[in-house]
Design goal:
9 helices; Jelly Rolls; four-stranded antiparallel sheet; 8 strands; alpha+beta; about 190 residues; 2 domains
């Protein structure tokens, strides 16, 4: 389990096994069953999760009562309400498991300690948060300028396991379309 995290860190920074072993006590193994809430809207998001197995989704409920999925996370991805995590404010998102999920949880109160003792970790999280910002900006731009069929094709091309493991209504919500529209798009693609 920890090896997946070690490999992930080393995609962005160079950590020795000794340095990594000092990090391990800061990560807490958790398992949640399918359809279990990890963080509920309005709570404080004082942790971030690195998925080892399973999947999660982050969503909010609009004033009209419609769920809007803002993040889909599979293995080797981090999930949290980053704004609330970094600012110490109540979350505007609910994060729920889609499948039985095992993950490593990292708490915000440990982050500053690690930043001071291990500057490499500060660099890692800076890169992680920059990438999250860039991804969010790309999603926003795509939602405004790229047809839904193209966005679906790009998502499935980039992350083919999403089509196999994530229910279609969650994918449709993530793309900002109705499940019926997604069914029509999928039907056209399969022809």
């Amino acid at each position: 389990m920890e090896q997946a995290l070690f490999r992930h860190f080393n995609q962005f920074i160079s950590l020795s096994t000794e340095e990594f072993s000092t990090l391990i006590p800061y990560f807490h193994i958790r398992k949640l069953k399918k359809k279990t809430i990890f963080i509920r809207e309005g709570a404080y998001a004082n942790s971030i999760a690195f998925l080892i197995t399973g999947s999660m989704r982050a969503y909010h409920i609009s004033e009209g009562g419609i769920e809007q999925v803002t993040q889909l996370a599979l293995e080797n991805h981090w999930v949290s309400d980053l704004y609330a995590f970094l600012k110490g404010t109540p979350t505007t998102l609910t994060i729920e498991t889609i499948e039985d999920t095992e993950f490593l949880e990292f708490y915000s109160h440990d982050m500053d300690r690690l930043y001071e003792t291990m500057p490499k970790i500060e660099r890692y999280f800076r890169i992680l948060f920059q990438n999250a910002y860039v991804h969010t900006q790309q999603r926003l731009n795509a939602a405004l300028s790229i047809p839904a069929a193209t966005r679906y094709s790009q998502l499935i091309h980039t992350h083919p396991e999403i089509a196999r493991r994530i229910p279609l209504h969650h994918i449709a919500s993530y793309l900002g379309i109705t499940p019926e529209s997604l069914s029509r798009i999928r039907k056209k693609i399969m022809q």
